[in-house]
């Protein structure tokens, strides 16, 4: 997928049908399991949502990224405040 983006094949945030097919062929050729197009797109959307949430986390004051350990770091109080806000927001949106 990164290669396709670098080639300019992700116009307006989406891949064309032909690009999705190329990605699917590449993924299936490299793995032990074969996926269908729907599964691949669902996985992509889950990864995109996780990346968005991760990026938002790092934008909050008090959070940082430790390059050596590849982990997010913050004070315990910062984590507790973040978790409390996330839980409250999820309860409100249901």
Number of domains: 2
Query: Helicity range of the residues?
Result: 55-70%
Q: What is the CA–CA distance across the termini? A: 33 Å
Order of helices and strands: HHHEEH
Domain Myb/SANT-like: 1-82
Pfam families: Myb_DNA-bind_3
Organism: Vitis vinifera
Protein name: Myb/SANT-like domain-containing protein
Question: Would you give an account of this structure?
Answer:
The protein is mainly alpha-helical and 94 residues long. It folds into 2 domains: 1-59, no CATH class; 61-94. Helices cover 64% and strands 6% of the residues. It contains 4 helices and 2 strands, in the order αααββα. It has helices at 2-6, 17-30, 37-59, 76-93; strands at residues 64-66, 71-73. It has a two-stranded antiparallel ribbon. A hairpin with a 4-residue loop joins strand 1 and strand 2. The longest helix is centred in the middle third of the chain and has 23 residues, at 37-59. The radius of gyration is 18 Å and the shape is elongated. The mean pLDDT is 91.
């Amino acid at each position: 997928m990164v290669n396709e983006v670098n080639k300019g094949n992700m116009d307006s945030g989406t891949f064309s049908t032909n690009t999705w097919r190329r990605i699917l062929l590449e993924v299936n050729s490299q793995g032990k399991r074969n996926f269908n197009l729907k599964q691949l797109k669902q996985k992509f959307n889950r990864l995109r949502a996780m990346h968005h949430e991760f990026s938002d986390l790092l934008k909050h004051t008090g959070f940082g990224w430790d390059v050596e350990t590849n982990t997010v770091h913050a004070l315990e109080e910062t984590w507790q405040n973040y978790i409390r806000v996330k839980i409250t927001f999820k309860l409100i949106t249901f």
